[in-house]
Protein: Actin-binding Rho-activating protein
Amino acid sequence: MVTANREEIRTVQFNDEIQSSNALFVSSSASRFREEARTRAHRKQGPVNSLKDRWQEWADQHIITQKLNPFSEEFDHELAMSTRLHKGDEGYGRPKEGTKTAERAKRAEAHIHREIRDMCFIIESMAKPRRDGKIQVTFGELFDRYVRISDKVVGILMRARKHGLVDFEGEMLWQGRDDNVVITLLK
Structure:
């Protein structure tokens, strides 16, 4: 009988081991299932959290922008004065990069450069080069020819002089009064 009891004990122990291993298997399967469910839930909430974070970032940026906007009720004069650019600072007198204003400024600058090139071409085509290679034309002749193309003759001449492409005497040119002023093409 002692042997039977040992066999029964072994059987009971074996059954207990199977049950505990099954329990471990079930608990590990359950924990794995829970972990997968958490991962799936996290993946589902990922874009939502990302959207929420981006919205919060935008809201924070908007609050700061409103504190700097003099037309806003939340305008903070001290903050605006402390962050203001001064002459000589990088970016002073220029729009912020990436804004629509900066885009418009680039397009306007390209347009002005085209106008300057056109004017230089017209000056070059109007007069014969002198012996020293310089091309000169009077303001009256240029005005009569170029005014058919653009009404911004003087403005374009001033800008071309600023860029070192033409030269003439005086600060300003007036039609009629300055018709005999010589404009020299330098390019």
